[in-house]
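Here we describe the complex-level prediction in full. Unlike the single-chain runs in Section 2.1, the two entities below were treated as one system.
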Amino acid sequence: MSELLWDVVGVFNWVVLVYFVLLNGVYLATSIFAFGALKRYSLRLRSLDLTDLITSAGAPPISLIAPAYNEEVTCVESVRSLLTIEYPDYEILVVNDGSTDRTVERLTEAFEFEPATRIPTAALATAGVNRVLRSRTHPSLWLIDKENGGKADALNAGLNYCYTPFFCAMDADSILEPQALIRIVRPFLEDASTVAAGGILRIANGCTVERGRIVEVALPNNLLAQFQVLEYLRVFLAGRMGWAALDATLIISGAFGMFRRSSVVDVGGYATDTVGEDMELIVRLHRHGYENGTPHRIHFVPDPVAWTECPESLGVLARQRDRWQRGLFQSLTRHKRMLLNPKYGRVGLLAFPYFFFLEMLGPVIELGGYLSFTATIIAGRADWVVVAAFLAVAIIFGGVLSLSAVALEELSFRRYPRLADLLKLFVLAGLENFGFRQMNAWWRVKGTVSAVRGIQGWGKMTRKGFEVQTDEEAA
Amino acid sequence: MPDFLLRDPESISATGLLVLIALILVLFVCTLVLSAYAVVMRSFHRARAKQTSELTDQWRDPVLSAVADPTLVPSVQSLVSDDDGVQFVDLVIEYVRRVRGEERVILRDLVKPFLPQVAERIHARSTERRAWAVQTLGTLGLPEYAAQVVAALDDSSPLVAMVAARALSREETPEYAGEVLARLDRFEGWNRLFLAAMLAAMGPAVSKQLRDALADENGSPWTRAVMADALRLQGDFLAGDIAAAIVGVAEDRDLLASSLRLLSAVGRPEHAAVVRPHCASADAVVKAQALRALGPLGGDQDIPLLVEAMGDPSPWPSLYAARSARDAGGKDVLMRLVASEHPSAALAEQVLAEENSL
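The structure predicted for the assembly as a whole is:
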């Protein structure tokens, strides 16, 4: 190889080093902020009387909008769980997004839907709505049956039929905890400028579901799912909590978030030409707020929980990560004028650059780093001491960050009661550096390439369904 | 700049190597510390949960016995050591939230000896600890600790002030309404309807104060709008005339909309005259609320106007107009619309169906 090429590799290795330091520095900083914020939050919960809030006449009505596409395996259980939510005034809008399986039939059998009239309250463009149905057994449960248009399109259709000042966007295959709404609505009550709030997602694989509720929390047996449990803890408790403490939340998961209806309608609803409609909406809400000078706060609340099923096969996980990365790319490039722009406050100066350089471009650098390091080593040009030291720092630092997420979980919510699960999480914190992390980087690079090539679509997602305990088993 | 990975005797000095080794050691220690921290936290919380559970088991029956027989209060108090006082208060507060009247008074008597420990924390540096103390004293310590809770309304932390306001806004303690109302501007960041619900919860004993604040032309439009919403939640019929007077002159959008909402709940037919002009408002929010109010206040003569407003391009005015047309006695007209090809036929069908499902 020519010296020029080695010079290029050398420069790239420095880029990798800087990326590594910056990424881990940010992770460390958000973990530290999250530590303080979670500690305060745990104490704060003691000064709140949730029962009082639930019974308060001031609890505003909420619509739960649950888009469903080919969810025949989980939809009935999920809707059943939505019906058990403890909140004084809410209705459920399940939006069937042109499912080709028996989603509608299963829902109709379970909840006795019948045709009803419901006039739209907004005019967001969506694929055609075929019919609106209302449950005979649960009058607050509606089914909007429409042509397929994607998740964002389904959410917009739900928004068009939303009659309440706030709505909660969620996945039809998620299980909300009974107090999830009352916990996530709080920021809207305490701060009138709140336009959105996100809750925490947890992995339901391995947990036992009974009558639409999670009754036993445990780690899944599948190793891939176990890694994702740890990953979700890190992303939500250390990452999102930390960014929220900095008042720079840039993403709320599409699987569970609460929004002020009028704010979302004002900005045109969900973007249907991106697969990252959840993040894109938050970025757009920020942008709209800053550009129009309207006060707007976006919160992350760590205890309203939505349980979701994660992929247990490499193929499905790869497609999911590819899609997430494309969504990130599309959201950030669409609003690139916010990058390092002081007009957009902390979001423009902190959160946006972090997501742009470290999350969007990062996987390319990381994967490139694996290649350039390997090439340098194979060529016999590397100093083994430096290589070993760098790898050791990378692996142990990765472990520190994951362990800090586990520590945050133990500090705050302690959802995994078995000591064996806790110890397993420790082991996973080390193990994930050998394979899972690299595969993740590879999938994300592929996602970036797909985004650059303009590839759309969600990719096929297969669901196993929740581990449901029957009444007899429960007894 | 040479590649930092290169095999070069000078690429890494002895000091550099030491720094790297130190970094690895520090990180390694961090992993151990974090793992230990997680285990310690788990053990600590388990131990605390166990202790709480044991104490709860020990106290539950005596507490319930004392509720049934107040003479047992001193003997129950003697079961609680000073060290466990705060935990006892935490247990009793859960029961207090579920009961009313005499039972609540007994439970308050039960924790009285332990409240000084709570009161000490009202000056804690931690906002959350202060908030907890205010919440506890507000629930269990009124009127003895009223001065502290009222003072917390001026706490530098909005959280503490909010907890104090909620603690003081109870039906059984209307005497503190003035203190809360005097500081209402402090809570301008709150959701207005939530605040209104909090004030409304104090019941009819404070209605006059709310009416006076609503009628006060020197008050801020925001405060007056909150009062209007609170009075609507209370269903205070005496507020109708004040609301009508405001609707006749108000320019502030929120105040106008809230007053129209109040009129829709407590107004009388003679108030329809001040409502009608707003049915043509250029502001969709005001128009929607005016059309909503015209349902209960208006009569047959308003049905043509309401039916016409059902075709409003904005969804909320049209929806409220349809409901009002139904409530003002226009069901037959709506039924005819349903049977016709009228553009508002579906809307008419919906509001008629809404009534049937109620």
